Amino acid sequence: MIETYLLDWANLLLRWLHLITGIAWIGASFYFVMLDTSLKPPKKAEDARRGVFGELWAVHGGGFYCSQKFLTGPKGEPLSNDLHWSKWEAYTTWMSGFALLVVIYWIGASSYLIDSQVLALTPAAAIGISIAVLVAGWVVYDLLCRTLIGRDRLLAALVFVFVMAMNWALHQVFSARGAYIHVGAMLGTMMVANVFFHIIPGQKRMVEQIRAGQDVDGRPGIVGKQRSVHNTYFTLPVLFIMISNHYPMTYASKHGWLVLAVLMVAGVLIRQFFVLRHRGQLKWWLPASGAALIAALVVAMAPRPADAGAAAVSFAAVKAVIDSRCVACHAAQPSWEGFAQPPKGVTLQSAEQIGQHAAKIAETVSNGYMPLGNLTHITADERALIATWAAQGARLAD
């Protein structure tokens, strides 16, 4: 019991850290993309002679700022020793996210990662596949980027196809929730590896050349810019995946991988709108298309009503199913190993508690999300029984 209690605290604190550092990383990323796409040629001739490529005047927090970009460092003057490196936000976000993956999906593999109805895996095998996904995702993506230099549209298309293929494949291996989080973890690993292996090392080489008085090779800056742009398009899909575990209606549906694909495309379209807006281009069809995709998804995923005209379902029959399939976890003191408290604080031991959560019980049981990984082996007939009971008004008295 004490181990489960401490794991819950580790889960909470790591989520908090992950959220804080993620905000810092994504905020910095969004800001620099905005800055880079909003630059105007320097107005002063002496700034151009100093190597200023572009500048942006801004006002914020009661002050005025002038940001200037040097492609290969300042000319005719030393490079400041007071450089700020935007990297630890990225590294800490990934490390805290990886720690969460370990605490929730590796230690709790039997509950959160494995679904025997999808594929019968041992925890060791599931964890091994999890590691392989993170490594293989980066290797394939990086190889595509290195191979297709200067062919950005083809590269974008192939990266999209690769991510969608992995999205589908992961849904054939893990639980729906586990598949979603691994798509996000794979993208997040690509993003932080871009920073660690390309953006920061390339910038360090350029700094060394500037300080040594050598001609500066601008190629690392070009690669860094490319990888930074990729990161900004990965951001909205990754953010959605980070919060998706609270909404099983998305991943627990029959075609969860397709739902994720549509939402990822919508996120990219919306992000593209903001990127172009910084350049002064207002392409309203982009967010409109993203919103239309989401609206179409909402309509397509709307639950089909159960047959309310079927034979009346007794509450006693429903409670018997809940007692045998749900209460092991959803009790004031869960008896299922690994749970120190009921998931989301929901207890289902009394008629009043069941009535309070009737709609959510019907939804999560009908779409297959609950019980987690079907650990208690609920049957299709029992799922249909609960759905019919809810459709008939969720009566608590026979």
UniProtKB/TrEMBL annotation:
Keyword Metal-binding on entry: yes
Keyword Coiled coil annotated: no
Pfam families: Urate_ox_N (PF06181)
PROSITE patterns: CYTC
Alphabetized UniProt keyword annotations: Heme, Iron, Membrane, Metal-binding, Transmembrane, Transmembrane helix
Highest rank taxon of the organism: Bacteria
Domain Cytochrome c: residue ranges: 306-394
Transmembrane segments: 12-34, 94-114, 120-141, 153-174, 180-200, 232-249, 255-275, 282-302
An MF annotation (GO) of this entry: metal ion binding
Protein name: Conserved hypothetical membrane protein
